[in-house]
Amino acid sequence: MVVFNTATDCFQPHPDVLEVTYQTMAVLLEKGIDISFLTKGFIPQRFIELFKGYRENVKAQIGLASLSEDYRKTYESGVASPPEKLENIERLLAAGIDTQVRIDPINPFVTDTREEVEALFRALGQKGIRRASLSYLHLRPAIQRQVRAEFPTLHRKLLESCFRNQNWVEVGLSTKTKLLPKRVRENGYRWIKTIAEAHGISAVICSCKNPDLKGEICVPARIREAIPGRVQRRKQLILFPC
């Protein structure tokens, strides 16, 4: 299986990016190679038509943290709108594609209110989603610099206050990361999972960004099944500090 978009998005609204993505996916699928992708962008219909011919070979994840358009404009201005992401989900499921949702990042005091979470899972349940992965926001130095440069003062101070007493740690392949306090994440995940279950959705904690909690690897089942119980991990070389 070839996994797209672990650190970028091949459904950016640029014709050259979309064309290269389409050609690459088509070649892989025609050769019988499975593909998996995560996107916060809008998926053009020609991709859906391509995927229809290879239903068993395509695994999709849609990144959707909130249904609020105000949130999108403030925190994720370059991504598809919430209605467009729900349309992605609807078209993928109608085409018979295995589709899950990645709720990441969960922004403390912004998108983890009960009203926000209830509305999100209600919409996902109505669209037919049955599995979602959860991950609270974490900070890396580059993200912190971006927050200070671009966010409104109130939003910046609120975010920074959540991480004020947290140490920099190594998480996965990141050089330095700050996690929210463990108790905050545990409590949040607990009640969010309860709401998800009420809408027929199995919500799992992403272990990639929560190494200190019991969770799951947030990838499609076929990839999870192929990973041995114990893997000797080799440290990846760092090209750029982040």
How many DSSP E strands? 6
Question: Which architecture of the domain at 2-132 would the CATH scheme give at its second level?
Answer: Alpha-Beta Horseshoe
Q: How many whole angstroms does the radius of gyration measure?
A: 18 Å
Query: For the report, how would you describe the main beta sheet?
Result: 6 strands, parallel
Percentage of residues in DSSP E strands: 5-15%
Query: What's the order of the H and E elements?
Result: EHEHEHHEHEHHHEH
* Uncertain spans: none
Give the CATH class of the domain at 2-132: Alpha Beta
Predict the CATH topology of the domain at 2-132: pyruvate-formate lyase- activating enzyme
Which class best fits the helix and strand makeup? alpha/beta
Kindly state the percentage of residues in helix: 40-55%
What's the number of helices? 9
Quaternary arrangement of the chains shown?
single chain
Distance between the termini: 27 Å
Shape: globular
Average predicted local confidence, pLDDT: 90
Strand order of the largest sheet: 1-2-3-4-5-6
